[in-house]
Helix-turn-helix domain-containing protein
Amino acid sequence: MRGDATPRARPDSAPRRGEVVGAEREHLRGGFGRLVRRERVAVGLLQVDLAELIATDRTAISRLEAGRVRPTSSMCRRLSRALRTGCGEREVLALEVALHEAAGASLRGVTDRTRRRRDRLDAVALAAARSSGGDPYTNHLLNLLEQQRD
């Protein structure tokens, strides 16, 4: 019968769409995932707590820490702000840069639509940070992030 068809099982060797495998997964787990976990534990957050702070679910944090998915620039930004709550912009930006570096070539690209939205938000944030009389270190980090975005 057609209506009683059971879902086909996925072969064990076939990764799910968007899932990272092999050496890239090990690289992400050992670098990006380890950094996120270390920072999360250092501030006393559970995965579910961090997920709530960045408006996602616990499994998204689990997958990032395990290196099973590629992080985005947006996710790096959200993580750094959540993990550095109450800190100055310098500390937030330093963690964001560290997350970008840990992700390396695995940092996932964004679509044109999300890029335009992100660029508008970044322009506002950069203008606010620069107009607040940021110190040279903060300005240097802002310039690096701006260059990486281009």
